[in-house]
Each structure stands twice: as structure tokens, then as C-alpha cells.
Amino acid sequence: MHPHQDDQAPPTVYYIPDFITEDEESQLLQQVYKAPKTKWTQLSNRRLQNWGGLPRPKGMLGEKLPDWLLKYCERISALGAFAGKTANHVLVNEYKPGEGIMPHEDGPLYHPTVTTISLGSHTLLDFYRPISAQELDEVPQTEESRYLLSLLVRPRSLLILQDDMYQRLLHGIQGTHHDSLTERVANLLATGVLPGATLTRGTRVSLTVRHVPIVMRANLLLGRK
Length: 225
Ligand SMILES: O=C(O)CCC(=O)C(=O)O
Ligand SMILES: [Fe+2]
What we know:
This protein is α+β, with helices and mostly antiparallel strands. The chain is about 20% helix and about 30% strand.
């Protein structure tokens, strides 16, 4: 049996090319790189900035978003991406060519919609089936056999993932320098890139814009009104 035969196509993916203009893209990049060095967290294969507070199981100690991010939180929320709520959290990730992120789930702390603006370069976001309990007894599932499809995100685009794409599947980015665009890229038609093309990665900065439902106010934590 073909290993992917019983998997459904993703139910809720919206890909919006040119969601922001080239001017807005360079302004956003300027703001990201203007942030103090201490705002960056260096990980082994990327670095990141966290804005809006640190999401924790008991809630997020909310911090005011700067205007340059609030603008996009509001623009994305106005599309109805967060069921009437306004996004209050932004993760900025920077990937140099060859960098990526291991397949993972984003977890339960967020409203189950993730929206991503890409800046500076494209990337290929790969999606994987989770390992099911019954399969654990059988043949070990390799990353390759669990791979389902990829989405190409080009600079200035907005990607919105909801439902199973967010809650059931894992997503990751391979640490490569070149991406070959095969039939496994599910949104190729929407990107204007021809099948068979190879794209070379530059430095990509992504803004992952989300809504964290449980927010604590600092003054409540300090016991003041
Ligand atoms: O850079 C991206 O588009 C994905 C980032 C991501 O998956 C995350 O930060 O959880
Ligand atoms: Fe993620």
C-alpha cells in the first residue's frame, strides 16, 4: 500500500501571496534587526525573538506589542483568523541558508490557528503524520515515511494553518540550501513557481502571529488592582 494513501489532504490552509508590500517587508526587517541584541535567543539551528509575553501552561504574562507588530496582528485578525479575537503574540524566527526547525507541534497554549508572514526569502514547510500508538508496535516509522506534503511560502506571503494542519500534523523546515519543487508541494499553483524549479534559500525571517487565550496582567500577579 502506498504509505500516504489513507491520509487526507489538509483541510484548512490559506496561502495569500503578497500579503504585504515590498516597502512593508523592508520596514519589518529593519525593525527586527533594530531590536537590542538581548532580544534574540540563539538556538542551534536558528535564532528567535519573542514578543507579547512568554506563553506558559497557566497563562501568559502579557506584554504590550510594539506598534510595528500590532499593525500586522490587527490586519491578520481582521481576516477572521482568530475567531474574532486579536492576535497578541508574535514569534520572530531567523533562518540562515542551511538552517531549519525540527518537526514539531506547536502545543495547546495557543488558539489553534497559526499565521506566518515570511520576509527576505522563501522556505519549504514540511508536514508529517504523527506516530500513532498502534504503529509503535510495528515497523518503526521514519521521518520519511511520515512525510505528507510541503507548502512553499514566498517572501511577503501570509500562511494561515488551522484545524488538523495545526492540531494533528507536525511541521518542520529542513536545513538545506536549495529546494526542489516537486508535486509534493501542495500549494505550488498559488505561488506562481513552476513545478520542477529549484529555489536557492536566502536568509528568511518569519513572523509567527498567534492568539494566546489566557493572559494574566502584571498588576494582578503583584496583588494590586
Ligand atoms: O518559520 C516558520 O515558518 C515556522 C516557525 C515555527 O514552526 C514555530 O516557531 O513554531
Ligand atoms: Fe511551529
